Amino acid sequence: MTTNDLTADQVTKRVAAMIAAVSSFITPFLGSSMNIALPGIGDEFGVDVVYLSWFVTIYILSSAVFLVPFGRIADIYGRKRIFLYGTITFTIASLLAFCAPNAQLLMVTRALQGLGSAMVFGTGVAILISVYPLKERGKALGINVAAVYLGLSLGPILGGFLTHQLGWRSIFLVTSLLGVLVVILVLTKLTGEWVEAVGESFDLVGSLVYGATVLALMYGFSRVPEVTGFLLLAVGVAGLLFFIRWELRFSSPVVEMRLFHHNLAFTFSNLAALINYSATFAVGFLLSLYLQYIKGYGALQAGMILVFQPLMQVIFSPLAGRLSDRIEPRLVASVGMGFSALGVVMLISLSETSSIVYLILCLLLLGFGFGLFSSPNTNAVMSSVNKKYYGVASGILGTMRLLGQMLSMGVVTLIFTLYLGGMQVTPSMFPSFLKSMHISFIVFAILCVFGIAASMARGSMRAANGIKEEGTGVREGES
Question: Which single residue of 50, 145, 153, 440 has CA 20 to 30 Å from 128?
Fold first, then answer.
């Protein structure tokens, strides 16, 4: 079939899928490349392992603060417009990171990248869902998730190669060039606009409270067991209670709390995503340090080993997406969580003498499990709401992912602080580093068990009452 034989609707689908896939590739590529580049950044700027963790954390924190508000803004003013602005912001921030002369300015650029990513995360999947009917949605999301995992797969290899040959700054240059490609595609190929909540007001107060609450909770968690950490956590909890009360009373809230009311699929699918990312995200960060510090591998060698996990995710996420069009998403996702749990449990026994074959087996199990989990879970979330809320639902799901990543890094940062303090990882600190890593994996394994429970608790989507959708995404629980 040629392009001329395609209908306008088919062309829009293909273009939206291509743009969503490229944009979904960029940020995980950067993230997995950064894990490989961190020791090099630490050597150049002379910063300790706790400070290095903040190069990852500040990006996630910034994304989490802005994601839901920009999802709502996109519903009101246009998803394509916000997606474009976000890609431009991310691209400029990447260029600035390439030129950063010190650790402090690099940290600022990482925060700006998080802002741009929030605008992209809150709209990319929403655009994809807007153009694909329910019966094709799992397939489209499976391809999009595969693009995410392709970024994760190439990150360690290409990031390791770039770091080894050209230095860590080259990673940001490559990322900015990919951002330019997405901007060109949006401007020249993506026609139309998607505005489902046009004319509605934007909840500025709720957005500010939401951002401050996320900031207090996440930063406070990273400062525990200091008094400041507990105070910030208390402020965050109070802010969360106020936010929920405000949103229930506001006529046009930034987060439609009724999406959670009597909608088990939406509520528990988001909870499962939160737990899943909390239990798995920091694994790559820990193993990158383990391979380079404990095993003595270079950046490229470490990348070649870590690639096994995302490679499995690339292979199995499209299959899982198609399965979720035919089989209950909760069943596919729950099996995936089970395999992830097994992989994390096996990582607890890693030591200086552990074989690389054993580590690769753990990574294969983790990748297989996450590949089965992600696209069915996304399908469950987005298919459980009215199309009017696609931007908000995408933003909430993205926030669960980012909060999970923050919690995962927060656990590691807290344990590093307790066992390593402000020390760099030198041979004399290797035993403390290994102990910190083991405790982290124990915590993550426990979280995986709760994740399986949350995934199963969402109930049967196909047996749910009140499903009125025929390609529009309208489901129960929104009265």
Answer: 153
